[in-house]
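Thread: quick sanity check before group meeting

JM: Hey all, I'm pulling together slides for Thursday and realized we never actually wrote out the predicted structure for the chain we discussed last week. Dropping the sequence here so it's in one place. If anyone has concerns about the input, flag it before I start.
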Amino acid sequence: MKIGFVDYELDEFHANTYLRIIRAESLAKGFEVAGCTAMTSGGKQWAEENDVPFYDTVEAMNEGVDCFAVLAPSNPEMHLDMCEKVFPCGKPTFVDKTFAPDFETAKRIFELADEWNVPVSSSSALRYTGIQDHVQTVGGRSNVQHMVVFAPGGSVHEYVIHPLEIVVSCMGASVTGVSKRGQGEYVQLLIDYAGGKTATLNLYC
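JM (edit): ok, ran it. Output follows.
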C-alpha cells in the first residue's frame, strides 16, 4: 500500500513521526510512503532529506500512490482546501487531527468525500491506548459511569482532541451537554451523558 503525504509544511512533527513509524514498523506489512507534496516551498528540501519522492501537485502524485494522508495538524484551516485537491482522485484518505477549525467546515469535508465516494477517516492517536483495552476488560463502555482525563498540550484548540478521543472512545457519543471552565493555560470540560453518566476533562497548555 503506497501512501501519499499531502501537507501544508512537511517539516513538522506528524510528517516526521508518521514516516519514521511506517518505515520502522509497517513496511514489512506492505506499507510505504511513496510520495509527498506541500503547500509551502520547504517541502522539496524535506523530501530530499528523507528520501521521499516529491511532486509539485496532488494530481502528479496520484498515479504513484494508493491512498492519501492529509496532514497539517497545526493548520486545520487548510484541510478543506487540501481535501478539495485530494478527494477527486477517489482514493481512501486519512485527514489528520485537528480535523477542521469548525463544525461547518468539518461537515463540508464529509460532504465532499461523499460527492467523490471517498472513504475518509480521522483520529487522535489516543483513541488506541491501554485505556480502551481496560474498558473492554470491565465489560465495555456501558459499564463506564464516569471518567476523569488529564492531558497536556500546546494550545486548547489543537490539543483538546486528544483527551476527547479518550472520553468518546471509552464512553460513546451520547453527550447531552458540555460546560467549560477556565481560560488560557488551564481549561476544564464537564461532559454530561445520557443516563446520568459524566466525564471531566482537564487540559493544561
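AS: nice. The longest helix spans residues 13-26. The first strand starts at residue 2 and ends at 7.
JM: adding both to the slides.
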